Amino acid sequence: MAREDNNRRGKRRDRDETPEFADRLVAINRVSKTVKGGKRFGFAALVVVGDQKGRVGFGKGKAKEVPEAIRKATEQAKRQMIRVPLREGRTLHHDMFGRHGAGNVVMRTAPAGTGIIAGGPMRAVFEMLGLQDVVAKSIGSQNPYNMIRATMDGLSKMGSPRNVAQRRGKKVSDILPARETATPAASEEAAAPAEA
Fold first, then answer.
1. What do you get for the CA distance between the two ends of the chain, in Å?
2. How far is CA 63 from the centre of its chain?
3. Where in the chain does DSSP place strands (E)?
4. Chain-centroid distance, C-alpha 147
5. What is the pLDDT of residues 75-134, one digit of tens each?
6. In what order do the strands lie in the sheet with 55-63?
7. How many angstroms separate the Cα of 155 from the Cα of each of 8, 39, 54, 122?
8. Is the Cβ–Cβ distance between 44 and 61 less than 8 Å?
9. Which residues pair with 23 in a beta bridge?
10. pTM above 0.85?
């Protein structure tokens, strides 16, 4: 009986150790607490965790040692993950504005091949999310905590055509604009004035 319990615990431990999430350490600060005998120093860590397929979360942890602070932050980030719909698995569906306190961020969709154009903490969020093409600008607070919270605020408001269609009770094809199909005659007429 005891051997079976140990096996179950071992399997659960193996399952937890599988690296399904990637994590990125964004900031680490030395913090101090003033007590009667002087100061006690500790460390605060800010970590972003994601599966690079549309899920991302952030967490912060404090401890006397750096590795323990990072572990606490990573656990909190895994508990606070959000799902973000991605267009073609590489960019955002629409431009978005996020804010938290004095931190404002603007996130814009980008064509293929653009890459991630964003500042430090925002870049970490986008990489862990799995975005490949995005242009972002941070306006206001440069505090990494506020920047990440503002970015997560914007991403949490992100909608997709499927969500909008479901909310309105329509089909996705009714929501998306119809693509114009160019006829061969029209393309020849457009090319003729350019040659003349």
1. 89
2. 25
3. 22-35, 38-50, 55-63, 82-83, 96-100, 103-109, 116-117, 134-140
4. 12
5. 999 999 999 988 888 889 889 999 999 999 999 999 989 999 998 899 999 999 999 999
6. 22-35, 38-50, 55-63, 82-83
7. 38, 39, 10, 11
8. yes
9. 49
10. no
